[in-house]
Design goal:
By secondary structure, the chain is α/β, with parallel strands linked by helices. It has a domain of about 110 residues: Tetrahydropterin Synthase, Chain A. The chain is built from 3 helices and 6 strands; from the N terminus they run ββαβαβαββ. The chain has a 6-stranded mixed β-sheet, sandwiched between helices. Strand 5 and strand 6 form a beta hairpin. Helix 1 packs antiparallel against helix 3. The protein is elongated and about 50 Å long.
Length: about 160
């Protein structure tokens, strides 16, 4: 039985980032360009609260929100190994799409990516007092993927 390393937790959600992608290797309909309005939820934990009594001061998450907006708001996400990448880059150069190249555009990989972003921000801001231990990347009301891991640098 694992012991919860946190005395306090909180969540923050950012919603409605319209973007599109495709999973070019998929044998079904996900092979085609399709879009969602993605939403993201972050779970934060701490053993102690800050001077304001917060796990995380949500007003200090502007950089995280900016990263989400830049990556997912009215963008076209493509895997770095997509054979049509030169075409997508050409369309981007022509101003037809706002291209973002990712290792993997899937929701599972997106959940891991935003976990990395959140923990990078928190480590720099709080020197290890807080961490993000879980993220959810949601493509619609029915489908979501989560990534859950306590960073090595968060003391247990």
């Amino acid at each position: 039985m694992s012991i919860n390393p946190f005395r306090f937790t909180c969540t923050k959600s950012f919603q409605d980032f319209p973007c599109c992608h495709r999973q070019w290797q998929h044998t079904g309909h996900c092979h085609f360009v399709h879009g969602y309005s993605r939403s993201f939820t972050f779970w934060f934990g701490a053993k102690t609260l800050d001077m304001n009594g917060f796990v995380v001061d949500f007003s200090e998450l502007k950089l995280l929100e900016e990263k989400l907006t830049n990556q997912f708001d009215h963008t076209f996400l493509v895997n770095s190994n997509d054979p049509l990448l030169p075409t997508w880059e050409d369309l981007h150069a022509q101003g037809a799409i706002n291209l973002r190249i990712m290792k993997n555009v899937g929701m599972e990989s997106s959940a891991e990516l935003i976990w990395e972003w959140a923990n990078s921000l928190l480590l720099a801001k709080d020197s290890g007092r807080t961490c993000c231990w879980r993220t959810e990347a949601r493509e619609n009301h029915s489908n979501a993927a989560c990534f859950e891991l306590r960073p090595d640098w968060f003391s247990s």
